[in-house]
Amino acid sequence: MEGIDFEVKELVYRGEGDTGDFISFDPGRCDGCGLCVKVCSAGLWSLREGKARLAPRYRELCLECAACWEICARGAVDFSYPAGGTGVTIRFG
Ligand code: SF4
Ligand code: SF4
Fold it and tell me: What digits encode the pLDDT tens for the residues 32-62?
């Protein structure tokens, strides 16, 4: 069976307007497990000195999947969707 071939970034439309900060990270809760690094399809998390780090440009690169928030058992990541009209919209076809 043939797979569907597409580029996610071709489906992503970014609205106008300032999203504000919609992800927050508490390094005091982070145990450096690295799961956020593994689940982020946009590659926006990294580990440095035993703690996670979110890319400074996340506002313009994040796909708003909330996987980093969902996977973090330590409650170190908080996520909320940006205000309507800002952030990303996924378009199909
Ligand atoms: S999933 Fe949570 S605890 Fe694990 S590295 Fe990421 S922020 Fe830290
Ligand atoms: S919401 Fe998704 S794309 Fe954005 S930083 Fe978290 S895991 Fe990565």
Answer: 999 999 999 999 999 999 999 999 999 999 9
Cα 42 to ligand 2 centre (Å): 7
Sign of CA dihedral 35, 37, 38, 40: positive
For residue 38, give the H/E element and its range: helix 35-39
Domain ranges of the chain: 8-90
Return the CATH number of the domain spanning residue range 8-90: 3.30.70.20
Q: Which residues surround ligand 1 with Cβ inside 6 Å?
A: 30-36, 52, 71-72, 74, 76-77
**Better-predicted residue by pLDDT, 88 or 84:** 88
Q: What is the atom index within ligand 2 of the atom nearest the CA of 43?
A: 8
